């Protein structure tokens, strides 16, 4: 029973991280006035926030399964959601040029 809960928390954390990475990528694409600056911010700041979240949930609360290696945890809980989040934003959301932003 505990293993089912651990894997449920794990899948929920991967899903939450993917949504968070997509939202952060979208925010950087809309707010930055550069051609590729959003890529640097998305690849630089998103993993930091996801790392803090991973430490809080899997370390502090002790939830999630034992994946065997810190590298696997980093790849699955940080790398995969960043890649999926950026892909979702790039392929399935309207381009920033098509979005109306309020005037300052």
UniProtKB/TrEMBL annotation:
Positions of the DUF7991 domain: 1-103
Signal peptide: none
Ranges annotated as spanning the membrane: 7-28, 40-64, 71-94
Name of the protein described by the UniProt record: DUF7991 domain-containing protein
Pfam families in the record: DUF7991 (PF25953)
Keyword list, A-Z: Membrane, Transmembrane, Transmembrane helix
Native source species: Halonotius pteroides
